[in-house]
Structures are given as structure tokens and as C-alpha cells.
Design goal:
The complex is a heterodimer. By secondary structure, chain A is an alpha/beta fold. Helices cover 40% and strands 16% of the residues of chain A. In chain A, helix 10 links the parallel strand 12 and strand 13. Helix content of chain B is 42%, strand content 22%. Chain B is built from ten helices and twelve strands. In chain B, the strands form four sheets. Chain B has a five-stranded parallel beta sheet with strand order 9-8-7-10-11, sandwiched between helices. Chain B has a three-stranded antiparallel beta sheet with strand order 5-6-12. The interface between A and B is large, with 49 and 37 residues. Strand 18 of chain A pairs parallel with strand 12 of chain B, so a sheet runs across the interface.
Chain lengths: 510, 288
Amino acid sequence: MAVTLDPSDKDSGSKDEKKKHGHKLSVPELIFGDLWEYDPAPETADPRIRSRYDLFIGGRFVAPQAGEYFASINPATEETVTEIAVASAADVDSAYVAAQMAYETVWRTMPGRERGKYVYRIARLLQDRAREFAVAESIDGGKPIKESRDFDVPMAAAHFFYHAGWADKLAYVAPGRTVQPIGVVGQVIPWNFPLLMLAWKIAPAIAAGNCVVIKPAETTSATAMKFAELLQEAGLPDGVVNIVTGGGETGAALTGHPAARKIAFTGSTDVGKLIMRQLAERGTRMTMELGGKAANVVFEDSPIDQAVEGVVHGIFFNQGHVCCAGSRLLVQESIAESFINKLQQRMETLRVGNPLDKNTDIGAINSREQLDRICELVESGVAEGAKLYQPSCALPSRGFFYRPTLFTEVTQSHRIAREEIFGPVLSILTFRTMDEAIEKANNTMYGLSAGVWTDKGSRILRMAAELKAGVVWANTFNKFDPASPFGGYKESGFGREGGRQGLLDYVDLS
Amino acid sequence: MSERIPVIKTPKVYVGGAFIRSESGRTFPVYDSGGQFVANVPQCTRKDLRNAVEAAAKAVPGWSRRTPYNRGQIIYRLAEMLEARADEMTGVLRQFAPAWTSAAEQEVAETVDRLVHYAGWADKYEQVLGSANPVAAPFFNFTLTEPIGVVGIIASDSAPLLGLLTQAAAAIVSGNTVVALASESAPYPAITLGEMLATSDLPGGVVNILTGYRKELIPTFATHAHIRGIDAVATGDDATALRRGAADSVKRVKVRQPDINWSSEFNESVYEIRNFIDFKTVWHPIGA
């Protein structure tokens, strides 16, 4: 581990900073740099990934009709993890046929109480195999094992457990109306939280009595196919959940299929708009969970150290591949200098590297394509005059990695302040008054999430009321829960996932 | 003694709390059910629509910040205004909407009742649609609703009053403001409605009503980025155009069929309000 940071230099620098702002740290900073050689702590559980996955249609693994497969690689090593089937329009069609059959003959008529038991089984089986799924998720997608282990997989299980309990309580979802399942639902999910997004989509849909055709993202299909195995173990009736894999063409066949009574999409705003246009004529019901450019607003009275942690977590969680990432830091001018300094110090301690290492904070960028996009946007930031900062950490020689990055001297017109980067890149702006913070925070076409850091409860509630975003985190960031509705304002989409509100988007009312 | 010549009203549309003609100066004639010329109504343009959206957008902060109790009273007051002028409105519906002659009185009564229904929701829908959420972490987690902003309405040719006000009431009760295109074939009731809106306590800009041609205005309704939602009675190409244009700014579109039964109680629902609200979930820390 060649970490070039010189601890003595860093120490004296921060002392100057402390003197200037009159802060006293009671705890010495723990920046060891390369004082000791780092001893890797890799997770070694067997991910049990097969060498090739077929499509999961009608409860069975079936080969794609055209016989086409593509290699899915580990973004940390660029080695092939497994081969994934390419579903053609004909394969997608047979998935819909299976789903429609299951809906009409089994799932729609099954009492909610019994349906719920299947969903509970899925939750339990996922908990049983959590470790294996976590390793597979990190190998296939590049996210740090501590995140897949402590967040993605347990949260996915929680979503099934939560929604399982709704299956026999749907009468309470919509007071004054009778609820019915919609029918067959087509779902398309992104590559940033492959298993968790799958859970967000499938759990409410099947709990409400719908059947599903779902497509995981091209680069992250492995855990979805492992999940198909788990559905077999759960004995879920054939065809209730069908999983088709592939790229954009498969996705278009899925979203455009006439049997889909609803399309639920999570992904980029650009693709969301394409789907909306594709479905304009048919008028298919939709929910859209799209991009974001969240403001994380730090007031001078905030618990500073906690806020630094929160800002770091807000943007570097999952390499910044988070639609609700806190990618715009708005920090009050009076504390900006010291806050940014603390942020930079904290960034020095972030460990970038092997996703399977239990101490890794930032894993691999999901794909070369995404890495290129991040590089391009960062270059635009430099070219447009923002000031770049990156810590000195070494990056692995192979795989797709990117240093945690922050920009100061950012203006609202910079591309890095407007466009979703979907990478570990933080743009910092400052403000003086609450009104200015609100105006800057809301100055975006997106409205998925926002954060506010302050010691005042009343200020939290005022900010929460003013910020045009579907989720507002106060003195925290990137928190999720199956009971907590999630979704966006404006061009971040419509519809909610989670809670009673999310469930209502998976039923018809009469 | 010579017969007194009646003074004929010049129809104007109600936008931003004022009565205006189209900026283009264009009009189109309307005839009563007997085919007799009655008046020229404004043939509003895309520019008129954009101006109306601006007025509606300006009205959002003030209207949405009023207390639910206040919004409820104002919508109730509108019902009072309509009830008090029921004869006038019934006469207008009778004069211009032949298919509904026998139903004119009933339509006015149902419209008043519908306004009363939605007035009552103003301080209640939040408790039905929102929630406190039991998350597995030390946070008070709650979900509130917020209006989405400006809602575009393409009104019905059948029940030109009841349809329009059903759509509008469900949108404004939560704090949205509305730009509505009145029925093309029966625009006159909307002109009269504007005069009643002006005498209610509804702030200017909360409900804006245009008259004109669907073909001219639907594309702008669809693509105008400040219109955040559309509630349209439309079919075929119109419906497709609305949905396709809406994709540009990710706006939600509610399309209703022309044969919709506006009298149905199904149109009185908290879930109609739900069409044009956003849910906001707040994670508030619990601790020292």
C-alpha cells in the first residue's frame, strides 16, 4: 500500500487550521498514512455464482431462444464472473405469457394470507444466504463488502419481510376503496443496488397480488439470477416472478410489451423519458424513479464532525452510484473553510480498493463506461474553473477505480453542479442565509432527496418544508427503510416505493 | 315607448384574476343550441397559455401556504357563489349545451355539491394519504403531501361545468393552481364560471381558464415545463400527444375518457387529490 501522505505535514497543517478557527480537537487525528503496511482483510465466503445463467421464466431456467450470452465482469479485476443470457423479444414475450398465466390461474386468486407466506419465505431464505449474496453482489458490481453485507442484502430481506405482512391487509391500504392487483407488471432496475432494487420492485408487486417480469441491469445480473434459485427454494408458484436479462433492447421489449399493465422503472432520467415516450400511445401506467442531484445543506450550528461523516457517507457511499447521493454540498459560509478542511482530512482516510476487503470504503466503479463518464464530468469541472481536490490514495492497477473527489469554487452553472455524475464526486457551494440555501438547493431539475444539518429542530422542519425533494434527511443521509416511502419530485420521477404509499402504486382501486 | 335594447356581454377569459381577451385578438363565434349567434369568445393562443401558466406559477406559493382550513373555506365559498347564481349558470348551460338541456339544473347542483365535497377534504386528505412510518432506526419518519405546482386541465365537452370543476377542485384543494382549457364545443359556461371565480375569495391566478382550440393548445400543455401535471379528457392522438410531450419534463398525465360519467361518486375521492400531489418523506433525528 503506497499511501504517500506524510502524517507530520498533515498534522501541522491542521493545527494551523485549528488556530485560525479557534477549534480544539480533544482527540488526536488518526492518520497513519504508510506508517504500517496494510494487512488486507478479504471476505472469503463462496459466492456460489454459476459459470452461466439462463433466463428464469415460468419457474425454470430456460436458455435464450437465440442462444446468445454475454460475459459479466468483475469491475474490480476486469475478469469474467459469469455468462448472462441475452433475452430477445421472443424470450420477453414468453416471460409475459408465463406471468399472465400465473396471474390468472394462481396468484390473483390465492388468499392474501397464503401469498404473504411465500413472501415471508423469500425474506427468510435471503437472510439465511445473506453472506453468500453479499459476496456475489460485491464481486459482480464492485461495491464494498461492508456495504453489501451490512446494507444491500439485509435491506433487501427487510423489504420482503415488510411487504409480506401487507399481503393479507390490502383492505387497509386505500380507505374508502376496494383494492385489486393490477395484473402483470414489467420492471426495469439499475446496476447500483442490484439486489436491493430487485427487492424494492418485486416485494410490493407480488405482495399486492401482481405477477412480475423484471430485467436487472446488464452489468449486474448475477445476484438476480441467484435470487431466482432462491425463489425455487421458496416454492413460489411458477411464473409469479420471471427474470429476463440483457441490455437496452431487452429493456425496450420489456417496457413495450402489450401485456404489461404497469411499468416500474428505476434508472436515469434520460431512459425514463424514453420509456415515457415509448408508452405514450398505449398509456400504460408507470412509476418512475429517476436521477438526482441532491443538496446536502450544512448550517453553522450543525454537529460538525457528525456532518462531515454524513457528507462523506452521502456522496461516497457505493462509490457515489446512488441516485439520491448528496452530490451538492451547500455549506454555510462562516464555517466553509474549516468544514472543507475537515472533509479533506477525512477523505485522506478513505480506503479505495478491493471491494471484498472488509475495510474498503470505496470499491470499484461499476463499469468502464461509467468510469469514462465520471472522468469526462470531472474534466469539465476543471475546465469550467472549479478547484479539484483528491486525496493521495493509491488505486489498484487493474479494474475500474476512481479517487474520492471534491470540487470547491463551484458555481451553480457548472456542469458538475447540474448534471448527475453518479460517481464519488462532490461539488461544494456556499451560502449565507437560509433563504439562499433553499434557493440554491432547489435550483435543479431534479428533486429526489436532500439533506439538512443543524442543531435546531425547528430549522429542520422549515428546511424540510422548503426543499423540493421526495426525501429529506436531517442530520443523517442515505437512510432507507421499507416502511419509508422513497421517490422524487420534478424530473426525478413520480410514484413512491416503500410504505403504504408505495404499495398503493401497485394496486387498482374500485 | 321603444323596446329596450339589451346590452350584450363581451366574453372574456379569466386569467391571473383579470378578465382578458386573447393577446392575438382572435375570437371564435359561439352559437346557442338553436344555432343563433351569441358572442365571440377568445381563441387563446400558445402565448396566452404561457402567460396563464406564469400567472398560475406565481399564485402557487401564496395559495399552497394558506392553511388547509382557509383553502377549505375558500372552496366552500365558491360553492356558495355558484349556488347563489345557480339560475344564471343553469341558463347558460341550457342555452349552449343542447345535449344537456334537461340536465342543466342537475349539473349545477352536482357541481355545487362536488365543491362542497372537496372543500371538506382540504384539512383531511393529509391524514388519509400521509403517514408516520415505523422505521428500524432512531428517527421520527413521516410522509407528508405537497402540491406539485401548476396543473393543466383539458376539460370535458360533456358536463362542461361539472367536469371542469371536478378536475379543478381536486387539484386546487391541495394547493396546486390550475390552467384549464374549457370545452371547445361549449366554452361559454367557463366564461360565466370565471365571473363567479372572481367574486369568490379564490386568489387571482389559482384557477385560470382559457377558451380556444384543443389542437392549437394541447402541444403546449404537453411540453410546458412549468406545468407539472395534466388532467385531460382526451383520446387517440390528443392523449398520445399529451403523454409524449409530458415525457420531456417527466410530468404526470391523467387521461379520462370522453364518456366519463361525471355524476358518479367515484369522482369524489381523496385518490383524485392524490393524482397531483408529491409525497415528501422526512427523517428527523431523535436524540439529545
